[in-house]
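Appendix B. Raw example, untouched.
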Amino acid sequence: MEKIVRLVLDRASNGMMDKQTAAQILSLLKTEEIKPRQEIAVIGVAAHLPRVDNLDQFWEAVMNQVDFIGDVPDQRKADLDDYLAYADHIFGDQMKYLSGAYLEDIDKFDPQLFRLSPREASLMDPHQRLFLQVAWRVIEDAGYAGGKISGSKTGVYVGFASNAKDNYQKMIFDVDSGLMSSAGVGNVTAMLPSRISYLLDLKGPSMVIDTACSSALIAVHTACQAIRNGDCEMAIAGSVRMNLLPVDQDFLKFGLESSDGKTRTFDDKSDGAGMGEGVIAVLLKPLDKAVRDKDHIYAVIKGNAVNQDGTSIGLTAPNPEAQKDVILKAWDHAGIHPETLSYIESHGTGTVLGDPIELDGLERAFREHTDKKQFCAIGSLKTNLGHLFESAGLAGFVKCMLMFKHRKIPPMLFFERPNARVDFSQLPVYVNNKPSEWRASGSGTPLRCGISSFGFSGTNCHMVLEEPPTPQEEAAENIGPFLCVLSAKTQSALMRSVHNLLAHLERHHPAIQDVGYTLATGRNHFNCRLALIAVDTAELVSQLRGIAVSGFASSRLEGVQWGEYKVVPSNKANLAETEMYEKDQRVLTESATLVTDSVSPGLRLPLERISELYVRGADIPWELVYRFSGARKVSLPGYAFERNRCWLDIPKGVGKAAANRVESGGEDRFYALKWESLPFVTADEPSLSEGVALVLSDGNPMSGLLASRFRERGMDVLEAEFGDRFEQKTEWHYVIRGDEEEFIRLLEPHASKLRRVVQAIGFGASPDSLEELERIQHIGTYSLFQLARAVAKLEIAQEMDIVLLTETAVKVTGEEACIRPEQATLAGLGKVVRKEHANLICRNVDIDPDTPAVRIAEEIDCMQQEIYRIAYRLGQRYAEKLEAVDMAAVPEKPVELRENGVYVVTGGLGGIGLEVAKYLAARQKVRLMMINRT
């Protein structure tokens, strides 16, 4: 813009342009916003695809013409069989499942890494779980993990469509509707991108995009536009597609499915698309900044465009004119001539209607610029993977990026006889049905391709990609050795990382300084750590092989150190060998920072000292360590997730749901709380025999008896009495006031091992003063509230059993000597805690004064999670439950108002409350208390 203004002014001042014309041009420049076209770099890619562990395997499979279509994996089939049997679905006994390209292990997840409890993860939509892991991986692949983008304007755009058939929340409801409150947030579609934004503190836009089959590529398009207009600095664009209920039923089909599960794009025998699954993400960044920051660039997005079919021959029918227009618009946005394109990744659904229309629209677009025939290859990944629907566009996108890397075009499967409705000899494209070298269209022209994605919603997208620019090689200012590090949350995950990196380096041969730099600056650093000093990649491979064979402890390899550490609170008295205080870690970090000043090309001693400090827990200023290396980011394997099963627990058996279902017949239902007599429980095998139990009390004997019982069961017991100050009497005995800060101080040393909390307060006489009532509420209800806040602040993710002991807080038999309503508030809050914190299994045991301690201990040990409230009265055990009431059988009787009786109207100053109060006052001489919120 500035150059144009300067040119106009120069021409006008030199008399080469009249002043009136110059003024008009300058006026137009002020009113017309002229933006240079900004190209977008793809700097990270991650995917979870069927039957492969990584993109190297995926590329080999595609090049070798692998058909990914097959049967449902065994574990998924077993889960489906159990669900359909238990939920009494309508599909019948002879159930058949569709063939497709299925993901393995959709039930596997690493909840600890993402600060989730196993229960919360099991109730979370698997679409959310798997996208979390893939999004984590794409950030690692780009070299931006470890908090490098925390707080940045990084956006998250996810192509995804929720439908009733593949709804995990519906499955949860069918199996146990009581779990719905716990499963709510984890199954909200909007949380799919928001979870990664929340986890990593990303401040850019976060949204789900659903345009049916074009969702994934539209997500990439939207992310590009957001970067260009300044909404974000970088963006994750991703997509998720899974078929959770792939039953073979005609009424569940859209009409585009093929007869045999195969996709025969452009072939004369094509009759529809097969079905595929995938979870994919890419990380995007402005090209100029990616080049400046030495990012690993997979491809360049030169241009992209979106439009809509508008009115066509049918709501879901494609429109060739609209497809032509979106392609032309993308080419124009890219600023390229279409003859420089040498490959098109087609939408290619293999449908009778869709394929000819797509080729027609593509031909119309080319003919606007060229008459050349059969000069550009065309293909479709759907012939390998089937139709990934919302993920389809990104699957083709990843294929094209791999084509740039290998400079080859994979063959398209099942193309035996061209579609008779199309004259391929006259088209500008030809079907590539065999492996071939990918050559640019002309000398000096980079490899370029186009990608089409057309949703049956009518929303179309086309994108132009170009091969990445050649990195500018810098003269190496140093020689080895170099320091390479790996870390994980567990030793097993660290060993898997060793194997993954070893396999990658044996296949690829990146420069050792690039490997070290990427691992050091582009990854999180966890408590299990490995440091390796190597002169070159060959030596690093040798070291990794030695560790893979011998393990960490037994390896005696030169240049290799490993360690494990844990930072504990300063009030913990006795430290284990691997534990240290935060101040100790600061000392290690300060020492490491001093050592980095002496890092110099070719010197080994400073790196050895840094290695030693790193594995002991020091935070290293890695950019300083690698300041002389001239290193750049490279693609390396990411975190080796734990593979814990996280899936809905489905009871075995047929028809249980039907047997337990209450048929309402369309009538209104009323329920009443009832108490059901139950047999006593005996916990021969305690539900918890390890970990830490916290016993909260006001000094009553019951708490001491329970503490002894838990110790006998093998648990470490932390006892805390409520008092007027914080005091540590012994290592395991405290006095606390019960506020959030003190709970954090009390629990932090034991956070990872805390498994049970028992609150036993207020036994004996009822409070006889307002002060005593307030004290009971403070150490009871309010302390539970502060405890829950402390657990959340400490990010305690493991399941925790919380038992609230109360004494005659509720009427059970009607024979109670007195009721203690001040204790009912604690039980009420417990229900809320249970629902808002999925990992806190809150229970209430309400006893009478004659309940023996052994009964209470047995009740706590049995840990029946499905029952919230158990009561003991006169030697009998009861459970609270909701029971349907037949209102027709309930006799009607007038409400009796007592003269001079006291009646409380909550919300009494609202419209309804005032009307109720007027009604009561008109019926009887009563005393009214009006309570309202302020």
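End of appendix B.
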